[in-house]
Amino acid sequence: MPLLDLRSDTVTKPTDAMRAAMAAAEVGDDVWGEDPTVNALEERAAHLLGKEAGLFVSSGTMGNLVSLMAHLARGQELIAGGETHIVNDEAANHAVVVGASVRQLRDRPDGTLDPHEIADAFRNPDDAHEPPTGLVSIENAHSHSMNRPLSVAYTEQVAAIAHDRGVPLHVDGARFFNAAVALGVSPRELAAPADSVTFCLSKGLGCPVGSVVVGSKAFIGRAHRARKLLGGGMRQAGILAAAGLVALQDGPDGMVDRLAQDHANARRLGEGMADLTGILSAGGIAQPAPGRLDPDRVVTNFILFKVDGDRRAFIAALRARNVLIDEYAHGQLRAVTHHDVAAADIEHVLGAIRGALADTGRARGAVTDDVGEEQLQGV
How many C-beta atoms lie closer than 10 Å to residue 217's C-beta? Predict the structure, then answer.
């Protein structure tokens, strides 16, 4: 069997349509604003999310960082969930580069923050001891809650709290289109309450590199300056942006609508895993109740879970069967479906999981009647 890599949706390879578009891309010097393909991508992204302007950046982390730099003054504070990417996975750039602190709040099992706690987290602007609150940020979809989408109504509620206090709302939308597809709403509707959104092209959308930040023209002007400060100016970047234009286009080569298939594949995998002895709920905020994995929580392309045993031995046993999964936070494991994992691959992955559980002594009674021991050894 070919290798099935479910460690992340970042491992996707560009499609044939993307490769053709990259090879034929019309390019110019983007630092001078003269790359027509980059300009077209930025305009397309802004249009899809209903914002005035966009900025092509090299990564989601850079997209978030230039957004923080554009929104926050040195010495201000950001309100964000303690289990979000900005807090946990971006090398403390908010402190090192922006000079801002973070007021961390507790993430709930559905990926949201308690609105009352958000309101209560705002600092007293008249107290010289406290850093002034300058920004609220949420993550949509929310990775550590099993990549659950945050609704339009919730985003509106958080935006109202922020705006009533005179600060903007930023959405870290690394998998923003997964959230929109899962909710059955347009990206424009989901982005409407936010002042800025960053989304990744190189995850579920399948591009080889890049992210886009969108917002008002004034905000994008500040973010553009921040990108320059960080060394993020690229020259003939249209070769990269061309793949993003393919991903965001309508029609069979576009990558947005097909995200629903990734979600369906993840749900099928979750349903199969839920019946296996030795597969446990992820615990933590992903699934607070211990015990059996609940497939109803699989609504996008993530499955977070634990195994009853040595997780590294389990990963190694899967690797021996040409299936890769990821070690994740809080003792969890992660399997992520994406463009390079087909519906037909799910049964093979389930068979590999059964075999790995058997290898690690945790699959007693978990093998279905139609999968014999000889089949397991050959997976």
Answer: 10
